[in-house]
Amino acid sequence: MPQLPPVDVFDYIVFGATGDLTMRKLLPALYYRYRDGQIPDQSRIIGTARSSLSRADYQERAEKALTEFVKPADLDDATVRRFLDLLHYVSLNGAEANSTWPALKDLLEQAPKDRIRVYYLATAPGLYGQICENLSTQGLVTEQSRVVLEKPIGTDLQSADAINDHVGRHFPENHIFRIDHYLGKETVQNLIALRFANPVFERLWSSDAIDYVQITAAETVGVESRGPYYDKSGALRDMIQNHLLQVLCLVAMDPPGSLEADSLRNEKLKVLRALRPIAPDDVAAFTVRGQYARGRSGDNTLPSYLEDLGEDATSSTETYVAIRAEIHSWRWGNVPFYLRSGKRLAEKCSEIVIQFKAAPWSIFPGTPRANRLVIRIQPDEGVTLSVSTKDPTPTDSLTLRQADINIAFEKAFGTRYPDAYERLLLDVVRGDPILFIRRDEVEAAWRWVDPILRGWAENKAPLQTYPAGSWGPEAARALLAEDGHAWHEDMT
Ligand SMILES: NC(=O)C1=CN([C@@H]2O[C@H](COP(=O)(O)OP(=O)(O)OC[C@H]3O[C@@H](n4cnc5c(N)ncnc54)[C@H](OP(=O)(O)O)[C@@H]3O)[C@@H](O)[C@H]2O)C=CC1
Ligand SMILES: O=C1O[C@H](COP(=O)(O)O)[C@@H](O)[C@H](O)[C@H]1O
């Protein structure tokens, strides 16, 4: 594999450094980039959180996280030791301008002033504005500083605006990196290549040839230890407002003029603004919200969401969403985009299904079958085009059989598929914003989501239940059946 060039020396300051995201995703991603020689040894990773820990305690936690979340074959003792040497820890309450900030200031000022600083905010979004204000008051925002904001930014348009305004008072827009890790997934980036480097697809990419589109992000895991966050968020804010809408933008946008960040973002924004609003009174017709009940997987009983939350919990938070979206544009008139995401579903699978229209007339026996393109985001990243071919079984007539043209990327290219964060974390150091979200995109996404949340809050769509380990509520099947369509797992 070609050696990637190292980035410039940097200080990565992670707020929320003891949390789930840092341990499960950020540290493993930085480890892989370090192992591959992309991170210079003089760089530092400075963890901060309120917990009182020594540097050695933090290094110990980080080592445990690497053991748990990096493939054993990729862990090499000497490299792990050298990586742990990059780590520092400062105990600090990001929400308070108290006496703990000077410790961070002292540490940062040990490095040359022009060193790249990345402030990564992996805390609850309600803290983003205050942390940035404190950084600014302490004189820690240098010309070479960037800030990374994790999703979801806010809980609705109003709170997102307030956060963006607050952060924007201390960092210029081109130094604010709003991360959505779905954009860092190889197969999501590959959508751009697939669509705009292969005219064979782009020429068919509209309502002329496409019947409908499905975008799914299904998880088998439940809410895990993130109950306190998730119960206030729910699947619509956690997955649809950001990840699925971003994927929808890449599927639906017009060709950007270039690979410049703003060129791409302008096209995505047009899609978000063309989404047909779903008014609170329409949520029953266009959305399904569900929560997992106790279910089964093989011989195992799977707990309900309420059991996962803990003793005596009550909640009407949705762990599943399905939406019939429409894009009001010349290209996509009359093409439904079905979006769905849920926890404790039957399979872990994120994919896009492009269902083409059938031939208008068939000279073959039986009902004509339409082509289908499936873009597998994860796992088993790849693309499958199903086509009709002649059935080779000797018969006296020419009958058809479905077959797949399949590319499994890892096998085809013989390379490991890096986790999305590996790419994105170093894009921030390089100052490359193409895979990050601009403020107006976040706002347009909330503008579409807010009325749905309002309709649900007014109980205009009942909360359905579904057994853990299933494909979600029956009502989600009915949502497609009304259009004469079916979810991928039900397609014949
Ligand atoms: N976990 C995931 O898979 C994903 C998470 N995200 C986003 O990342 C962010 C973090 O999520 P996650 O790691 O799951 O959350 P956790 O609850 O696991 O971690 C929160 C972190 O913030 C720290 N923290 C809390 N309050 C303060 C404070 N006042 N000052 C400084 N640090 C504080 C906590 O440490 P302490 O208590 O010691 O202060 C802890 O390190 C959220 O915005 C989430 O939406 C986005 C994508 C995926
Ligand atoms: O942002 C989030 O994403 C994960 C799912 O990410 P994936 O890369 O495994 O598909 C989800 O579990 C989490 O709830 C959400 O906050």
From TrEMBL:
NADP(+) binds at residues 50, 151. Pathway: Carbohydrate degradation; pentose phosphate pathway; D-ribulose 5-phosphate from D-glucose 6-phosphate (oxidative stage): step 1/3. It is an enzyme of class 1 (oxidoreductase). Gene3D superfamilies: Dihydrodipicolinate Reductase, domain 2, NAD(P)-binding Rossmann-like Domain. Its EC number is 1.1.1.49. The keyword NADP applies. The active site is at 243 (proton acceptor). Substrate binds at residues 181, 185, 219, 238, 343, 348. Residues 193-488 form the Glucose-6-phosphate dehydrogenase C-terminal domain. GO terms for biological process: glucose metabolic process; pentose-phosphate shunt, oxidative branch. Keywords: Carbohydrate metabolism, Glucose metabolism, NADP, Oxidoreductase. Residues 13-190 form the Glucose-6-phosphate dehydrogenase NAD-binding domain. GO terms for molecular function: glucose-6-phosphate dehydrogenase activity; NADP binding. The keyword Signal does not apply. One of its GO terms (cellular component) is cytosol. It catalyses: D-glucose 6-phosphate + NADP(+) = 6-phospho-D-glucono-1,5-lactone + NADPH + H(+). Belongs to the glucose-6-phosphate dehydrogenase family. Catalyzes the oxidation of glucose 6-phosphate to 6-phosphogluconolactone. This is Glucose-6-phosphate 1-dehydrogenase. The lineage of its organism: Bacteria, Pseudomonadati, Pseudomonadota, Alphaproteobacteria, Acetobacterales.
